[in-house]
């Protein structure tokens, strides 16, 4: 979820903003207040406590409302959910916090939480968990380490994601996307397929004589725009396939980036060759239209998308096209690498109900909530065993999510989001280097990436 980032994914880190949710301090919301018609949600608040919680993904509203209803039945604590769009969510939240206000609980993203920790905005949940006798390790969740720093706990993972290949069945058959390979020299069978699927206005394919790259009807592939430093739904899988990682060491809170690595230069050199050859849809199109309209209008045959978008491309979504999922191409080292990110519930320091909010975090990370999330099948829950429920639910709706189930069960193919300080500044610099330069087919990759690397690493040496 995401999930710079998207959950759905895009996160553009912001440093200024205006209020988003009904706050613990009583400030009014600019999002949509969500409620349930169930007796549980309308009943008497036995504890007398109402927690304000916010989220950005509208597709997950029903899942977490079901959790809120179950939590109230169990504890008597009301959780009032508010949903706002991704950009509004973060910009408004940060402005609220700057004014010393905010909700009790937020849906947190690893791209933001180092900044929130550094500014003292998040509660260390470890003491509350200890008082409640709650052991995070007992949940079976494998991604909780993302939310721990210096012995402190700032959240419990509520979901997991990965990226796979989405394709239009009008353009390509399942046999064509099976067992694809990729390399930075000639693109492997993936690069060859992208060229074959590219068709100009006269019906000439990209791998045929006479192809007109300046008048393309359907591109073989399109990248997500605004993907930030992580590149989760765009270039990251290629670089990871080369054995590259953003930081040294490849663990959270590293202080050295590797953006000038020759392997990354090779990746972007190949990407530029595909843009310049007319095989990739111009990034300006995805920036202005968005990936979904590009796919729905059959302007592109394939793209990379995350597990959080599965239902957005289902037949039930009333699309003009029919889509299916396939595994990512196998890279030079024999893996299909992808970021596996995880969101979490975090408690804000401004909350007047920290102990009660901690109980909500515990519940969201338990099977009591995770099973409800799995049943909705809008996202993969953080408890691995619940993935089978998601797969069964999606299968009943004609959606084959086997590629996601497979990769989420393969730790060797998964890496963590690059979690470091200075997220806002790093993402701003990455946007200039990637979206404004390299993904538009311009700029020398070695020069642009070297400059980006110097800009980022200077942040960690300035003191």
Description:
It is a single chain. With 463 residues, the protein is of the alpha+beta class. The protein contains 17 helices and 17 strands. The protein has helices at residues 39-42, 61-75, 86-98, 113-118, 126-132, 174-177, 188-197, 236-241, 262-276, 283-289, 291-296, 354-364, 367-376, 387-396, 402-408, 423-433, 445-461; strands at residues 32-34, 50-55, 78-83, 105-108, 148-149, 152-153, 156-157, 159-160, 163-168, 199-200, 216-218, 302-306, 323-326, 338-339, 344-347, 380-381, 414-415. Strand 2 (50-55), helix 2 (61-75) and strand 3 (78-83) form a beta-alpha-beta unit.
Per CATH, the class of the largest domain reads Alpha Beta
Sheet having the most strands: 6 strands, mixed
Number of strands: 17
Mean pLDDT: 89
Instruction: Please state the CA-atom Rg, rounded to the nearest Å.
Output: 22 Å
Estimate the global geometry from the Cα principal axes.
globular
- Could you name the CATH topology of the largest domain? D-Maltodextrin-Binding Protein, domain 2
Output the structural class. Answer: alpha+beta
End-to-end distance = 33 Å
Alpha plus pi helix count: 17
Number of domains: 2
The percentage of residues in β strands lies in 5-15%
The CATH architecture of the largest domain is 3-Layer(aba) Sandwich
Helix proportion range? 25-40%
CATH evolutionary superfamily of the largest domain: Periplasmic binding protein-like II
Runs in which pLDDT lies below 50 for 5 or more consecutive residues are 1-30, 35-45
Q: If strands are numbered along the chain, what order do they take across the biggest sheet?
A: 1-3-2-4-15-7
């Amino acid at each position: 979820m995401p999930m710079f980032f998207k959950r759905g994914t895009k996160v553009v880190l912001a440093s200024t903003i205006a209020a988003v949710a009904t706050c613990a301090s009583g400030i009014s919301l600019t999002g949509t207040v969500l409620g349930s018609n169930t007796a549980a949600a309308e009943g008497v608040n036995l504890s007398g406590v109402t927690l304000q919680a916010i989220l950005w993904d509208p597709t997950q509203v029903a899942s977490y409302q079901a959790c809120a209803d179950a939590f109230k039945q169990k504890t008597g604590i009301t959780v009032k959910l508010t949903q706002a769009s991704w950009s509004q969510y973060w910009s408004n939240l940060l402005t609220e916090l700057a004014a010393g206000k905010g909700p009790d609980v937020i849906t947190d993203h690893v791209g933001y939480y180092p900044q929130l920790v550094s500014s003292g905005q998040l509660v260390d949940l470890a003491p509350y968990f200890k008082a409640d006798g709650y052991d995070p390790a007992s949940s079976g969740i494998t991604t909780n380490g993302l939310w721990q720093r210096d012995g402190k706990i700032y959240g419990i993972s509520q979901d997991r994601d990965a990226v796979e290949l989405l394709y239009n069945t009008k353009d390509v058959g399942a046999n064509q996307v099976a067992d694809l390979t990729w390399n930075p020299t000639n693109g492997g069978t993936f690069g060859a397929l992208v060229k074959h699927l590219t068709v100009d206005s006269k019906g000439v394919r990209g791998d045929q004589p006479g192809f007109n790259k300046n008048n393309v009807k359907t591109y073989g592939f399109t990248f997500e725009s605004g993907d930030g430093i992580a590149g989760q739904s765009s270039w990251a899988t290629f670089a990871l396939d080369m054995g590259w990682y953003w930081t040294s060491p490849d663990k959270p809170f590293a202080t050295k980036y590797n953006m000038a690595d020759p392997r990354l230069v090779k990746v972007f050199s190949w990407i530029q060759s595909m843009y310049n050859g007319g095989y990739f849809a111009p990034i300006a199109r995805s920036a202005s239209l968005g990936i979904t309209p590009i796919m729905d209008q059959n302007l592109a045959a394939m793209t990379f998308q995350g597990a959080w978008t599965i239902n957005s491309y289902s037949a039930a979504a009333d699309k003009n096209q029919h889509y299916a999922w396939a595994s990512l191409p196998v890279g030079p080292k024999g893996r299909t690498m992808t970021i596996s990110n995880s969101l979490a519930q975090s408690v804000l320091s401004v909350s007047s109900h920290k102990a009660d909010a901690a109980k909500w975090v515990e519940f969201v990370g338990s099977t009591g909530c995770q099973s409800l999330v799995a049943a909705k099948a809008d996202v993969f829950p953080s408890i691995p065993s619940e993935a089978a429920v998601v797969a069964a639910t999606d299968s009943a709706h004609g959606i084959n999510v086997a590629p996601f189930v497979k990769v989420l069960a393969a730790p060797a193919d998964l890496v963590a989001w690059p979690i470091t300080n200075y997220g806002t500044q790093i993402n701003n610099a990455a946007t200039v280097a990637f979206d404004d330069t390299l993904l538009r087919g311009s700029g020398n990759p070695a020069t642009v990436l070297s400059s980006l690397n110097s800009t980022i690493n200077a942040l960690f040496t300035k003191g």
